[in-house]
Amino acid sequence: MRKVLAVMTAIAMAAAVIPIVGAQEKEPPIVGLWLATMETPHGKMEVTFDFKFNAKEKKNISGTLTSAAMGAFVLSGEFTAGKLTFAVTGGPPEMTFSGSLKDRDTLAGVMSAHNTDFECVAKRVVK
User: Fold this and answer.
1) Per residue in 37-62, pLDDT tens?
2) Which domains are delineated in the chain?
3) Would you give the DSSP letter of residue 18?
4) Beta strands in the chain (DSSP E)
5) Residues 6+ apart with CB under 8 A from 87
6) pTM of the model
7) CB atoms near residue 79 (< 10 Å)
8) How would you class 86 by CB atoms within 10 Å of its CB: exposed for 0-12, middle for 13-18, buried for 19 or more?
């Protein structure tokens, strides 16, 4: 009887943990290609964000920021509870972003570069 009880307890515990693990590995809605625009002192600037997801890392978002004027840069950050923060590396300016999803296809926030903040709105690129 003890063995049966132990097996049933183990199965119940495993069943309780599996949905939690699966939920943590689910790809967040931020993943994919986005076209962002921002007004700069040099005029309107467009960049693309290509976000990837890695459930095993604390900084669970990685990808690239690409612009015609500056080329491509690596980004890494976090997406939690609808809020996104990331930093861009590999280029001359230090760039950071902080914002949130306004709806499934709109991301809005602030891009900071050269000690200046720029309002940034990005729309999901639908393929």
Assistant:
1) 999 888 999 999 999 998 887 779 99
2) 28-124 (2.40.128.120)
3) H
4) 32-40, 43-53, 61-67, 71-80, 83-89, 95-103, 106-113, 116-124
5) 75, 76, 77, 94, 95, 96, 97
6) 0.76
7) 20
8) buried
